[in-house]
User: Fold this.
Amino acid sequence: MFILNIFRGFCMALADSVPGVSGGTIAFLLGFYDKFISSLNALISGTKTERKNALIFLLKLGIGWIIGFIGAMLILSKIFQSHIYVVSSLFFGLTLFAIPLVIYEERHSMKGHLGCIPFTVIGIAIVVCISFLSKTLCGEGIVFEGFNFPVILFTFAAGMVAISAMVLPGISGSTILLAFGIYVPTTTAVSSILKMQSFEALPYLCSLALGIIIGVVVIIKAVNHALTKYRPQSIYTIIGLMIGSLYAIVQGPTTLSTDDGSILDPLSISRVIEEPFLIFPFIAGGVVLVLLEFLRFTMEKKEKKNSK
Assistant:
């Protein structure tokens, strides 16, 4: 189980590092989401034994997550900026194909609760509003240079919101950063620090990290309570967040600019469909999710066999 949990954490990190599905979605698809949430909750307010068991489980996940995160950050910033439409097509496919999978997995909790559909609309509105808010407050994006206290506060808030998304089986925390307009600056800054090239963005990354830590403490109990007591409403909201994240991914290229300073156009759905170069990354997103489902089935079958 040690290697298995490291692999689980590695997969979560890859998902958390890119705009699309969240690490929570990966945990959900691989069948350990409830244990993940209950472990985080136990670490905060559990008994001594519960905290010990939760810490052991989360440390195993954490090792894999760190390996995956560092690997992703070292290559993502360059790939994201030079092949934005290819990468966005992949993320769009990942998110779009994940929606029916989540609906299928939660079909029992959703059955007979059509009155919860307004929660889906709320989820969509949240992501769309964040996208518009980021452009209003930060124009076409922000740069982590110098010392800008309002941007530090904005980054702190983005960290709190992003970690809330990361622990939910729906929208990616990176999609939230993309909607806030700080995904590219963050990946570029992390890559620069890992390569020991520049530490100018360190205050902003510390602010982001602080927001993430406080966000975990504040949100995890609320998430655990909502999924336990109000699961249908929560699932419908999550689906809305995922649908809304499609808009954020489409708008993702607008956070970048060309060499002459002009802003890139949004991802065109017609471009994804019509150009062969982009249809393959789009389809690859669905293939990845199918492979994850197969992997979960294989692991669950092996665990049941070992428990006998």
Notes: The mean pLDDT is 78. DSSP finds 14 helices and no strands in the chain. Residues 57 and 65 are 12 Å apart (CA to CA). The radius of gyration is 19 Å.
